[in-house]
Design brief:
Layout: E1 3-13, E2 18-28, E3 34-39, H1 53-60
Antiparallel strand pairs: 1-2, 2-3
Bound molecules: iron/sulfur cluster (SF4).
Length: about 60
């Protein structure tokens, strides 16, 4: 199992209509990949997730190995 990285990403949440900071966890693989493993919100159930800049930023920090 790779190293776990914790990052905090802030941005505007449309659903709660306020700025939020979301805790994210990434797993860093031996091949240099970075995979988002935890996002402390529920984008699958959120009607605004397609336009959520926090979720977008969290996904953009992933890397292929
Ligand atoms: S996924 Fe939805 S509820 Fe979660 S931070 Fe983004 S807009 Fe807010």
């Amino acid at each position: 199992m790779g190293e776990i990285l914790e990052e905090f990403i802030s941005g505007f949440c449309r659903t709660s209509n306020e700025t939020r900071t979301i805790c994210c966890e990434y797993e860093q693989g031996d091949d240099g990949s970075v995979t988002l493993t935890e996002f402390d919100c529920n984008p699958e159930k959120c009607p605004n997730s397609a336009a959520c800049t926090i979720w977008e930023e969290a996904k953009s920090r992933e890397r292929k190995g």
